[in-house]
């Protein structure tokens, strides 16, 4: 297989619509070597569904970022809370972190959170009126998950907007200095928040989290790193989930009308909406610790490996007619939340937030329409996530 001459995931056309690129790469070879950035570096990109599922569970693909860069010079300066979190670790370290994180998002705990989520959505939409224009991203998709995760972490209300903005900066693919600075702002803030909570007895959500961390054997730095992961992963992808789902429905009026007429179908439609336009385009960093084969294709040791859920979810061998939004499709095998031991533990919360947001929009404003051409909408310039920067709507 011949590697492309330039990084296909940095082309401006990719950010606007990655799926033609993914289709072309997958049809050529579902596991292929691609250039990454500048400097002659390469990675292996996995775009096939079966191959992605296999790679997600292969222990020879490590997520231990520190191990990969131990003997590779780097000028990056990420805060340890960002660079050494659960997503950048392997068992047994990962196992301890995940055991704590999973307890935070059990079905029972998410059920207990639903009344709070409903109140947040009601507050955010209280001033919305038919005939007015809103930006769904700024007015709902961003503040909803930010408010929920900050409530879980005990972040004071005056600090939430700044913390969310710094979290947003972490995904800026064009400015590594900005990313590094944002990581230190978040890491330092959460370190202070955790230390203050430990020194002040209480019974709030953060104190509950600290007790879970203590019971799980996490030390101070590990507790801060878990808090940082909850903050960043707990709202960024959910923001894109909501925005992408609303846009997909507006571009498919028959699907929008079906859910409007029967909102109880929304929970069952979430998997197809996640599959159709995944908020996670390329999964977080992995690297090969030894030579291996994925789907019959060789990957040598010592290379970064990029698994692309956004591509795998549009693989026609797994999902016939994949570019069509089909609410009757069994899309439960989508990979938007990952697969295996690193599957997103916060998936139940993300689904609850998206369901409540969609139900509110479709029932209160059933004739809502786009306030700008879909082809003109601006998308985030990052290969990791796929999401809109704005989504202008006219409420009706």
UniProtKB/TrEMBL annotation:
Superkingdom to which the source organism belongs: Bacteria
Stored CDD domains: CYP107-like
Gene3D superfamilies xrefs: Cytochrome P450
Keyword terms of this UniProt record: Heme, Iron, Metal-binding, Monooxygenase, Oxidoreductase
Pfam families given in the database record: p450
Annotated InterPro entries: Cyt_P450, Cyt_P450_B, Cyt_P450_CS, Cyt_P450_sf
Family: Belongs to the cytochrome P450 family.
Name listed for the protein in its UniProt record: Cytochrome P450
Species per Swiss-Prot/TrEMBL record: Streptomyces nojiriensis
The organism's taxonomic lineage, starting at the top: Bacteria, Bacillati, Actinomycetota, Actinomycetes, Kitasatosporales
